[in-house]
Amino acid sequence: KLFFTDYGSAAKVERCDMDGMNRTWIVRSKLQQPTALALDLVNKYVYWLDIYLESLEVVDYQGRKRQAIIEGRQIRHLCGLAVFENYFYTFNSDNLSILRINRYNGSDVQALARLDSAKELRVYQRRAQTAVRSHACEMDPYGMPGGCSHICLLSSNYKARTCRCRTGFILGSDGRSCK
């Protein structure tokens, strides 16, 4: 699944399949400007920052169990959000520091380092990555992902895929070749 925020005409947190199908709103009320999103892949939670409402909140993948973790003015200066083990990691654009915050109660805020500027933050660690099973976009014997000549996107499950083409190309009638 792909998770994303939008605060255009109606603010929302959404999810869809990797090919863009089955788009579903998971949060669509009490939102104004959701700007950063992080996933807990193990427990299947979605966290987001709303800099207008000055809150950091969480729901499960279906949009249930909504809960505010942190509320207050300090939220308006946060950019990017990552979650790993018991902590959030974010960047404070006001004092240019990377912060670590207890993700269960918003306490234990620690500045870890200073940077001149940042907009996004990611945690890369083996334990943060889920095991990957065999899937429909694996390389075929000819080195093409999922048999697609350009781009392979997983669909509704790991066994289904959709082929897409780079800009300037159209998908052939076989559903795999780009012309």
| Secondary-structure-derived class | mainly beta
Distance between the termini: 28 Å
The gyration radius over C-alpha positions equals 19 Å
Strand order of the largest sheet: 4-5-6-7
Helix proportion range? under 10%
- Strand percentage lies at 35-45%
Specify the CATH class of the largest domain: Mainly Beta
Order of helices and strands: EEEEEEEEEEEEE
> Count of DSSP E strands?
13
Q: How many separate domains?
A: 2
User: In this structure, how is the largest beta sheet organized?
Assistant: 4 strands, antiparallel
Name the average pLDDT. Answer: 89
The CATH architecture of the largest domain would be 6 Propeller
The number of helical elements comes to 0
Characterize the quaternary organization of these chains: single chain
Specify the overall morphology. elongated
Q: CATH H level of the largest domain: which superfamily?
A: TolB, C-terminal domain
Unreliable parts: none
LDL-receptor class B repeats: 1-43
GO molecular function: Wnt receptor activity; Wnt-protein binding
Protein name: LRP1B protein
Pfam families: FXa_inhibition (PF14670), Ldl_recept_b (PF00058)
Quick synopsis:
This protein has two domains: 2-123, TolB, C-terminal domain (Neuraminidase, 6 Propeller), CATH 2.120.10.30; 134-178, Laminin, CATH 2.10.25.10.
Structure explained in plain terms:
- The protein has strands at residues 2-6, 12-16, 24-27, 34-40, 45-50, 55-60, 67-71, 78-84, 87-92, 97-102, 110-114, 151-154, 161-164.
- The chain has 179 residues and is mostly beta strands.
- It has two domains: 2-123, TolB, C-terminal domain (Neuraminidase, 6 Propeller), CATH 2.120.10.30; 134-178, Laminin.
- The strands form four sheets. It has a four-stranded antiparallel β-sheet with strand order 4-5-6-7, with no helix packed on it.
- A hairpin with a 4-residue loop joins β4 and β5 (45-50).
- One of its GO terms (cellular component) is plasma membrane.
- One of its GO terms (biological process) is canonical Wnt signaling pathway.
- One of its GO terms (molecular function) is Wnt receptor activity.
- This is LRP1B protein.
- LDL-receptor class B repeats lie at residues 1-43.
